[in-house]
Specification:
With about 230 residues, this protein is mostly helical. Helix content is about 70%, strand content about 5%. A three-stranded antiparallel sheet has the order 1-3-2. Strand 2 and strand 3 form a beta hairpin. Helix 1 packs parallel to helix 3 and helix 7 packs antiparallel against helix 8.
Length: about 230
């Protein structure tokens, strides 16, 4: 924990003069998504509050916000922990993804589509794979799907899926072989992008639906094995 707190202190500058629970929660959400605080980690009020230079009340409000987002869990008489997902949680996350992401693609309307950010996410994933950084490939994959959702132009949908993708990262951090988990989807992301570049949103939706079904099966298989073998 000492190493994490030292690094977290570097984020204090992000708070600026308008230190709020929302901004603290933004920092912690990002750190959790990066795996900085892995699932199951107990979060110290004194340590984190001191590292960020915020009051106990502010930190507790940030914890409350992240608990509402299902990233943290409060255990009576034990404290606040980064949530460990169940297999059922993972399945529900993918149901939500399929409902929302496929609906976004289906509702795109007539081409051309603004795909610059989606294309950049595909390139980001390929660059990370070339560098043999498979956790970064996972991050790029999340960026791809976040940019796909952003094509809807809906702040509410973006906000909903921000929480869903953050929860998904909790599952990714439990998996011990990110290469095997993420590598198959580099080519599939590009196929979806190319379908949209060609104006074929129906084809892109079919690819996406199959992609998410296959991804669910793969993640649940690996996640169940990993969770079942945990002490």
């Amino acid at each position: 924990m000492a190493e994490q707190l030292t690094g977290l202190a570097d984020d204090r500058a992000l708070l600026g003069r308008t230190s709020t629970a929302e901004r603290v929660s933004d920092i912690l959400r990002s750190r959790i998504a990066e795996g900085y605080f892995p699932p199951g980690t107990r979060l110290s009020e004194d340590g984190i509050g001191g590292a960020l230079g915020v009051s106990r009340n502010t930190l507790r409000e940030a914890f409350r916000l992240l608990t509402h987002e299902r990233l943290l869990v409060h255990e009576l008489n034990r404290g606040v922990f980064v949530r460990v997902l169940t297999v059922e949680d993972v399945e529900d996350i993918y149901r939500t993804r399929t409902l929302v992401e496929c609906a976004v693609v289906r509702g795109l309307g007539e081409p051309p589509y603004a795909l610059e950010s989606l294309s950049a996410a595909v390139d980001e994933g390929q660059s990370a794979a070339t560098a043999d950084d498979w956790k970064a490939v996972g991050t790029a994959n999340i960026h791809f799907h976040r940019e796909l959702v952003a094509l809807a132009g809906s702040e509410r949908t973006d906000e909903l899926m921000r929480s869903v993708f953050a929860e998904l990262r909790l599952a990714f951090h439990v998996v011990d072989d990110p290469h095997a988990l993420h590598e198959p989807y580099l080519a599939r992301n590009r196929e979806i992008l190319e379908s949209l570049q060609g104006g074929d949103r129906r084809g892109a939706e079919r690819l996406l639906e199959t992609y998410l079904t296959d991804s669910l099966d793969r993640v649940v298989e690996v996640y169940r094995r990993r969770v079942d073998s945990a002490p």
